Amino acid sequence: MQATVFFKNLWDDYVKLAPQAEAIQHLFSTTYACPIQNDHVAFRTFARSPISIEKLQPLLAMVGYQPYDEYHFAEKKLFAKSYAHTDPEQPLVFLSELNWWDLHDDCQDIIGRILQKIPDDTAQHPDIFWSGTHWPKISWQDYLLLESSSEYAAWLSAHGLHANHFTVSINALPKLANITEIVKLLHDNNFALNVAGGEIKGTKADLLMQASTLAPEIVVDFADASHPIPGCYYEFAERLPDNQGNLFRGFVPASANKIFESTDRNQKR
Ligand code: NI
């Protein structure tokens, strides 16, 4: 599958879970009078499952992506890998997976029931990245229980496979654009930002500075009733060149750790 087709389908699915994304894209493209390019797109999934990173990686290869780097998030019980396309103009891809066996027993039970429902041969085609849940709707009670120990587990169990966020490449905007200016523009237009770890995560020394919106709530059907919960968010990334003059293409674990909290219901919207 061509990367352009992959990202078109992915975006069309994502905007249903990120009701603010098109408005922000429009705001940027009119402010800077240029098309918006993506820095990276990120996904969440379950480790040791038919949709684990190991199972999804060959499907990314079908789109032209090869592994680039690996990351561990001990506190959030996550492992992640980043992927780069053979065409450097294409965005990076960031896959994270939940080491669910490290959660409390009651959470493991809920996730164990979810994973039992996923057929072993589910990962066949790149369209899996916007396929949603492959299991029956969870109950509201199970959502709350998961959320109390892993907000990531709750989000993933309710939504399934989608782009969790798209990320605007600030570097691809006209020269004067920078993360501070982007944050101000979002504030001026009343978009709520994720403040965990500060609005701007990372420093020039890290070679990557990021900010993200707080995922707006969308109504999701649970087994018993519908409830509003955080959907997807939009991220903004400014990269700096390393000593050799090459733009940094990695991720900064301390920053990513806080970006994950963009779907946290406990932050005020
Ligand atoms: Ni990201």
Structure, described:
The longest helix is centred in the N-terminal third of the chain and has 15 residues, at 3-17. The radius of gyration is 18 Å and the shape is globular. Strands 2-3-4-1-5-9-6 form a seven-stranded mixed sheet, sandwiched between helices. Strands 7-8 form a two-stranded antiparallel ribbon. 39% of the residues are buried. Helix content is 31%, strand content 22%. The protein has eight helices and nine strands. The mean pLDDT is 96. By secondary structure, it is an alpha+beta fold. Strand 3 and strand 4 (92-98) form a beta hairpin. It binds nickel (II) ion. Nickel (II) ion (NI) binds at residues 40, 42, 94, 165, 167, 235, 259. Residues 40, 42, 94, 165, 167, 235, 259 line the site of nickel (II) ion.
As an assembly, this protein is single chain
Q: How widely separated are the two ends?
A: 38 Å
Average pLDDT reading: 96
Q: Bin the strand percentage.
A: 15-25%
Q: Class by helix and strand content?
A: alpha+beta
Order of helices and strands: HHEHEEEHHHEHEEEEH
Total helices: the number is 8
Low-pLDDT runs of 5+ residues are none
